[in-house]
Amino acid sequence: MQYELTEEQRMLQDMVRRLAREKVEPGAAKRDAEGKFDWAMVDLIRENGLYGIDFSEAYGGSGAGMLALAIVVEELSKVDAACGLLVADHELGSLPIMLAGNEEQKQHYLPKLATGEHLAAFALTEPAAGSDVARLRCRAVKAGDSYIINGTKNFITNGGVANIVTVYAVTDPEGKPHKNAGVFVVEKDTPGFSVGKKEDKLGIRSSDTVELIFEDCEIPAENLLGQEGDGFHVMMKTLDFSRPGVAAQALGIAAGALEYATAYAKERESFGKPIIRHQGVGFKLAEMAMRTAAARQLLYKTCALYQEQPKDMSRLSPELIRMSAMSKCYCGDVAMWATIEAVQVLGGYGYIKEFPVERMMRDAKITQIYEGTNEIMRLVICNTL
Ligand code: COS
Q1: What are the structural domains, with CATH classification, of the chain?
Q2: Which of 124, 134, 349, 355 has CB 3.0 to 4.6 Å from 177, enough for a Cys bridge?
Q3: What is the pLDDT at residue 2?
Q4: pTM (2 decimals)?
Q5: Dist. CA 112 → ligand 1 center (Å)
């Protein structure tokens, strides 16, 4: 395994960094204030071929791998975490098809997802459960050549804008908890499928977060991914593969806050010198730099290991499951901590909306919550020791 980024990965990083500075950063504060989904960001990602970065070439992707995906999400998230999430969540919604879909399903769905012509969302969480997957209630009942889905999913990123949603639903309520569900592809215009309440959030405000409602929603039986009973394992493996994407978003937030606070501390003077030269401030920045660098190493290593794994339903080793959880947990905690420190470095200016660090602090919080809370991540880590 090569330790440094390859020439191609560096070029990708430079390209996305420039794109982020020129096209994403200028509108980030406005998008946050308005809390409105911005299709211009989707177009930008589409035009630059970033949606398909970790999709296999066989299905129209660039096959650049998970580390390339992390680089893209990190660079976008440095200036706007909601924009980085567009890419990470699209991957999350598509992963059940990549991992558990049959050849026909892959050929049918993945090429349009790879170009971003279609967007994907992932629907697992319900009002009554998010962490305790085995107790989810959404139901899928087989009726001839169809399944009828009933239930509600909430906090679904991209739920209102996606063309397809990968949905977890219980097929056998009397069955064993981890063997009683399936994952289904539901297309946007299916009768009985509707978008409910849109959430007004603390952070990642321009990201689309909605409730999805299934009322006698009839889908073809061939939209089941894998077999009935595979659902829990499909979702667990999806999350193992997707959590590095959230980690990359968190890492980007931390790195963006570090960059901004450092530049500020070099300019701003107090007691006759730049505040970075006061150890109270300088040591904060040193600590932020250290933890951000450590988070990046952990994440990049995880991605390098994951991109060697086959995207199918074979079992991952406990070490790999742990690496993914550690990356997500550590990067999320670093993002939260580093953005609070960045606000402190900017003092009063850190607390007002004219400067981006308060937005970064609000955006960071979700990375400790979604795709498995950091408490669940610690559970996964200790379960795999
Ligand atoms: N990767 C792969 N397989 C996993 C796994 C993982 N991360 N975690 C558990 N499994 C497997 C186990 O190996 C076990 O397999 P067998 O039944 O074949 O032995 C099975 O799943 C059940 O495991 P366990 O008994 O540990 O399941 P629990 O119901 O106790 O739940 C946790 C385990 C809590 C780890 C799981 O439910 C989870 O990850 N929850 C968080 C879900 C989440 O991220 N929600 C956020 C919303 S999505 S944005």
Answers
A1: 7-115 (1.10.540.10), 120-225 (2.40.110.10), 231-383 (1.20.140.10)
A2: 134
A3: 67
A4: 0.98
A5: 30
